[in-house]
UniProtKB/TrEMBL annotation:
Keyword set, alphabetical order: Aminotransferase, Transferase
Protein name per UniProt: DUF1989 domain-containing protein
Classification via InterPro entries: DUF1989 (IPR018959), GcvT/YgfZ/DmdA (IPR028896), GcvT/YgfZ_C (IPR029043), GcvT_C (IPR013977), GCVT_N (IPR006222), TrmE/GcvT-like (IPR027266)
Keyword DNA-binding among UniProt keywords: no
Domain Aminomethyltransferase C-terminal intervals: 699-779
Amino acid sequence: MGTLTLPLENTHSENTLEDYIHLQSLIHNLHLRCDAQNIQLFHLEIDDQIQLELDEHQSIELLIFNTEHKLQPELLSQNLTSGQQGLFFNNASNTRAQLAQQTSSSLQLKRQLAQYGIDEDDLRNTLTLAQYGTHLFRATATLNILVMNTGVDMDITQQHCIVEIPITILKAQPLKHYLPDPLAKPVQEILIPRASARTYNVKAGQWIQIIDLSGKQCSDFLAFDEQALNNGQELGLDAAATRTILGHSMPSPGLHSKFYGADSTVLAEIVQDTVGRHDMFLNACSPKFYNDSGYFGHISCSENFNQVLKPYGIASRSTWPAINFFYNTFAEPCGEIRMAEPWSKPGDYVLLRAKRDLLCASSACPDDIDPSNGWVPTDIFVRIYDEFENFPRSQHYRLDPEEQPRMTQSSGFFNRIKSLTSKISEYHGYWIANEYDGWGAKAEYLACRERVAMIDLSALRKFEITGPDAEAFMQYALTRNIRKLAVGEIAYSASCLDTGGMVDDGTIFRMGENNFRWVCGDEYSGTWLKQLAHQFGYKVSIRNSSPHIDNVAIQGPNSRALLQQLIWTPEHQPTIEKLAWFHFTLAKLGGPEGIPLMVSRTGYTGELGYEVWCHPDHAQSVWDAIWQAGQQYEIAPLGFDALDMLRIEAGLIFAQHEFSAETNPYEAGIGFTVAMKTKEENFMGKEAMQKQAPESRQKLMGLILEGNETAQHGDPIYVGRFPVGVVTSASNSPLLCKQIALCRLSPPYTAIGTEIEVGQLDGLKKRLKAKVVSLPFYDPERTRVRS
């Protein structure tokens, strides 16, 4: 856990407005977690409390140390409630079981234990907590608690996996600052007090971590080529060069991946960001800004920069162009610049890497006259790490606004993927390939339509639903009639709010009579299911198995022939040849002693296809076997750009395009998933959808456009002057040699052959003519996918 600093001092009874605002922003609770099959150290001061949320069928192991790293379990006092079991001594059975596996999780655990200085004698004194529910402990003295959320890997045929443990620290003395643990051993640490600026030198290859200690505090950043400065030349960050080289015609909020100097060479690149909202189109604050606002003589970032840069012979400026970290400004459609409080929370940071020897300057912005720093400026902290360190590229995200950021993941297939392409992007918390070097989206598309292609779909989220009420719960949570599913069968379904709006779509696998696996697009779906089960009292366990299951899709007319050569199935499971559409089989790779797999006849392309599911440790071996066997069929890797072309042709929907929380399944084009007539039980969204007159619903339709100009998601659709619908997805169709689109239309304009126009620019100045067609564009009877 991060270092916690600066507890609240005794406050005067007559607080100023500034004191009051500080009180509102104090850190009372820290929302943290211990990830699955990991260990994490947390620091507690006297009377701090730590709350652990244990999942059903899971236990965790604890080690309690005093400040001298001596085991002293009596320093932690448990607040027991009625019927609650306490801690008991254990020989670290979970941790030892994970270590004994000789897998990637065991190797990682060994490194973590060594990092924290844990040896065999320590493990003999492990305390275990094994009861489901919320557990609260209090520190009777300053201590460190090591939480070991450990256990064996989950086999693909199993459903009881280790899941993350939510942890909350309730501070006895609230904090003004939160300084996270260093990412590695720092070579420099610089505190930038509020309303000031500091300079620091960074060597090429070194890493720069800029940390917001209290949250909602902006920090402007400057960088100069040090060698050029030594030669008498000011060569600093240049916004115009950066935007031009990266293909951004207009400034916008966010961060560029790289920042260039005026000579069009890279000065620094962004590696990690835990916020996702920064200002990239304004200068640092200046005296003019404050003078124009009536605050004459107010200190500014530009003046602070002038003072700290003066010793280096850098000429003063009336205002400095800068990277504005954590600054939350945005441009209205009319071009007006507006601002709001920053999104950054205590401990949030940006990590950069210097590409040349740099002189850097960072500020802690002094603006206290508007929301730009949450009204009260605070401190910024900078850490510099050695060039020999290695930090993965990451765009963090949060499921809950209060939780610690989550780092972008790499699937087990990713090492193979990145060896084939440099065109990588982040998607739903995973790194994915957009397209592959030497192929390209169209060639990958054609391989899938004509031969066979493979794509990593591990970014899909997987949840294990088990327990005596599992069937009844899924019958309520999903729109499909789950009771009709046989063991080994799969159904495509929606999950809805009580308004009828969609939370997610996905496939439900019936693993047993009371065992299901829900595969969907959004990790929040698991949170939603847990909330629903708790609200209505279902006896069901919902566990996130996404870290334990990776999947690769094998799609195309030769997919069956390819997999038949590789997949062995036992007598009680269907073979690949006999596997029916929307069914799965449990299998092995190559023979009865091979890698455990689950193979499903599913996909997202409209072609005959399968998905192969395995543990991440086995992913590279699975990829290699499929890739090698696929050479005789001219197999191609498939990126998400080609997948988008395939799924639009097949009329398949995508989150935040064809559906959202404001769109019900009928309006999203998947009304067939709503068992309104065949399911007697009530289900989420049923009543709202029943009250909606079918004739009034907007309808998902297809468009074929005239000409070669492409429609865009969000383009309005017109008949005459007024809009009648919206484009949800669009693509060029290599099959039809035309531009096509999915759209949502008002009922009077859904007849096949209706002529409409797609509005661009302001909707009036440019129109693309199109005709309404039925879906899907490709294989209307879906004979290929059923073949």
